[in-house]
Design a protein that fits this description.
It is a single chain. The chain has about 475 residues and is an alpha+beta fold. Among the domains are: about 240 residues, FAD/NAD(P)-binding domain; about 30 residues. The strands form 2 sheets. Strands 3, 4, 5, 6, 11, 12, 13, 14, 15 and 16 form a 10-stranded mixed beta sheet that branches. Strands 1, 2, 7, 8, 9, 10, 17 and 18 form an 8-stranded mixed beta sheet that branches. Helix 4 packs across helix 10. The protein is globular and about 65 Å long.
């Protein structure tokens, strides 16, 4: 099914009462803001960034060594960034899918698959141990084909996953529609093993877990500069200074304090809609009794899932880059993107005509050229960083944090021996070539979706270079 880019009256009507705000953050259970840092302090480990990467780093650091003095600073509020704006899919994949990982690290994929499942089990155990109320629920992940050529692509993906021991089920059109009723579905693959969460409540729960172990947390504390001061690291907030033995940088899509990281990361903006709660009759019309997490198989794909209170989150398709690594709240609302999403929603579920969207929001995804996290160190090993999750950071951020701690502690582990960890991605070119290349790629991907998946010379060249862009 080719999705229309011109919103109709049904889509426009559904957005009349939409609030441009993040649904996950618009909750009465949101904790009060933690006071900012106002006086100089010292610590063993300074974590900069209070998203999932930073929270997991602080928590794991205290679990490894309860005596370690850990400080976490967040420029805004916990979960305000990507950690509170995503779809709440917790994937076991560390490599942005089996196919991407197999293309890049074929000799390590069995190990990476195992480590990914162990990582997700670790997240589940943490949620249980600390009593984090985030709606954590294991579910199948279903990828649907909405064009004929995507059916064959999904069969190939299933074969690859099965060769690695993953229990993937291939569904024909009838079986797919029996699970979730949409005439647009031509087939699917179902993969068990993911989890669905309320991502903001997960972040807030991790915050409380960190504080319960003695992590000192300061919100509203942006770091303006980071430098080496002899054997120590020094971070300036403009008001106070933190002196630390080691620093973990977990700023992801935000402009990095290390210039070298900006060569590898571009922030692309993704947009999401949330419906009002469906009635029992509306749920019966589309089925979906398993409440799985879904996505379609296009280059420009949608992801969608039900919530605990009976809504549908619907996001994706657009991945918008703003020249010069443009980043900021001015990009969080895009009414044209919201209108496209609404049109595509009703093309997928026409029986839900009359349903309204209550919330719409956007956020930046930290994308790198290999679509999966990368690591590095600076300042003689006193600083470590991780970035580049490309939309799957809800799950892989815990693994990313564990690797950062291994690097900072000077540990030789199974994780640090991975080629995935030891090598960085191909950097993006400087502007204006960066913008030109990304725009060419975006247009080429859209064209491939319109032309039965055929990749033009530009995309094939990127594939040969190991860039292999998708949305």
């Amino acid at each position: 099914m080719l999705f229309s880019s011109t919103p109709g009256s049904i889509a426009k009507h559904s957005l009349r009462s939409m609030h441009p705000a993040v649904f996950w953050l618009d909750q009465p259970c949101r904790p009060a803001m933690v006071p900012a840092l106002t006086a100089d302090t010292r610590c063993d480990l300074l974590v900069i960034g209070g998203g999932f990467s930073g929270l997991w780093t602080a928590l794991l650091a205290k679990q490894r060594n309860p005596e370690r003095d850990v400080v976490l600073v967040e420029a805004g509020r916990i979960a305000d960034g990507a950690s509170g704006r995503n779809g709440g899919f917790v994937s076991p994949s560390l490599t942005h899918g089996t196919a991407n990982g197999a293309d890049r690290w074929p000799g390590e994929m069995a190990e990476l698959v195992r480590l990914g499942h162990e990582n997700l089990a670790g997240i589940e155990e943490t949620v249980r141990a600390f009593g984090i109320d985030c709606g954590f629920r294991r579910a199948d992940e279903i990828t649907v084909a909405v064009e004929d050529h995507q059916v064959l692509d999904l069969h190939r993906t299933a074969e690859l996953a099965r060769a690695l021991g993953e229990p993937v089920e291939v569904l024909d059109a009838a079986a797919t529609r029996a699970l979730i009723n949409s005439e647009s579905y031509l087939g699917a693959i179902a993969e068990p093993g993911i989890a669905l969460v309320d991502p903001a409540r997960l972040a807030w729960g991790l915050l409380e877990a960190c504080r319960s172990l003695g992590v000192r947390v300061f919100e509203g504390t942006p770091v303006a500069g980071l430098s080496r001061d002899g054997a120590m690291m020094s971070a300036s907030t403009g008001i106070a200074r933190v002196t630390a033995t080691r620093v973990a940088l977990a700023t992801n899509a935000y402009p990095s304090l290390l210039r070298r990281v900006s060569r590898y990361v571009v922030p692309v903006y993704d947009y999401v809609l949330m419906t009002e709660p469906l009635t029992a009759e509306q749920w019966a019309a589309i089925g979906w009794s398993g409440r799985e997490g879904l996505s379609d198989a296009g280059n420009q794909f949608h992801y969608y899932r039900p919530t605990d209170d009976g809504r549908i989150l619907w996001g994706g398709y657009d991945a918008i880059y703003h020249r010069g690594n443009g980043f900021g709240p001015e990009y969080d609302v895009d009414h044209e993107a919201f209108a496209r999403l609404a049109e595509h929603f009703f093309q997928t579920f026409p029986v839900l005509e009359g349903l309204s969207f209550t919330h719409g929001w956007g956020g930046a995804i930290d994308t790198c050229s290999r679509f999966s996290p990368f690591w590095g160190t600076a300042h003689g090993g006193r600083t470590a960083y991780v970035a580049g999750y490309t939309g799957l950071g809800v799950g892989s951020s815990r693994f990313g944090a564990a690797v950062m701690l291994d690097l900072l502690d000077g540990l030789a582990t199974e994780r640090t021996s991975l080629e995935m960890v030891r090598r960085r991605p191909i950097p993006f070119p400087p502007e204006p070539v960066r913008s030109i290349g990304i725009n060419w790629t975006t247009r080429a991907l859209a064209k491939a979706d319109r032309e039965a998946g055929r990749r033009n010379l530009w995309l094939r060249t990127l594939d040969r270079l190991g860039l292999g862009f998708d949305s």
